[in-house]
Amino acid sequence: MTQRRIINQTLTFWLCSWLFVSVKSLAESESFSQIKFITHSPYLLEVINKQEAPESSMNAAYLALFKQMNFFPRAELTVTSRFETILQGKEPVCTFLMIKNPAREALYRFSLPTDFLLAHRLYQTTNTPAIPAELLNPGGELASLQALFNTFPQRKLMLLKDRSYGSFLDGEIAALPESAKYYRWGSHQFDSDIKMLVKGRGEYILAYPYDIKRESPKYPGVTFQSNAIAGNSAIRTGHIMCNDTPASERFIQRVNRELRQLYFSADFLDAHLRFNDPSAHEALKQGLKVLQAL
């Protein structure tokens, strides 16, 4: 067999393989069109529906994912409190930026992590006295939410109705008396929480350092203070969450294949560093190493 013939056969093999993968991906993408996609984030909606420039690490990560998939879902904006009703229907439904907890995992299918952030901290403004040292552990973390509200029963923790803060914090919140909780409704996420904190509707919110960094320039006369909560994880991961149907299962499998590649790309790392304070970069790089080992 001549060298030219070997080269031609090799090129033919790779061309056929590429065509097979391309046709398979196109067929998969077409099947995904039957899935209803919903989100609580108007910012993510603009990124995935119109491919607008992202303004957050989460949205930048989703943009990188869907570009790699060569598939951009058409999403609808829906308040978080309606998610359960929509997901319990018979049609395939998926949503984004979701945090795992045991109740959800028992009912729905989750992708691998699509994005990650430094985890929630308990935020207040300086209009509320700082948390006393006796409620903190030696590392400066709040010992528990329950200890805080046992000491200050008149204070309020503002929460978005039906939002999950992850298994650990959901448990901490469930242990609080209802009198300590102030629930709000809506589709906007932490920007609305921060606005209500500034207005004094309550004394505390659970928020990501990223969100405080992004929103704080809007409130130049306000100083925010925060404490980590003992027992909470250092990194929060977000996921795509779908109901259990054949179409949504195929979508999750495709997303996971793409994510395993994306974790090693410069775009994915840049998406998470670009919008976060440099002081968070080392912790985020360590978080990415955990994802790469999945």
Any overview of this molecule?
This is Solute-binding protein family 3/N-terminal domain-containing protein. It comes from Alteromonas lipolytica. The protein is α/β, with parallel strands linked by helices and 294 residues long. It contains 12 helices and 11 strands. The protein folds into 2 domains: 143 residues, D-Maltodextrin-Binding Protein, domain 2 (3-Layer(aba) Sandwich); 108 residues, D-Maltodextrin-Binding Protein, domain 2 (3-Layer(aba) Sandwich), CATH 3.40.190.10. Helix content is 45%, strand content 16%. Strands 1, 2, 3, 4, 5 and 11 form a 6-stranded mixed sheet that branches. Strands 8-7-9-6-10 form a 5-stranded mixed sheet. It is globular and about 80 Å long. About 3% of the residues have low confidence.
Q: Describe the biggest sheet? A: 6 strands, mixed
Number of strands: 11
Structural class, judged by helices and strands? Answer: alpha/beta
- In total, the number of domains comes to 2
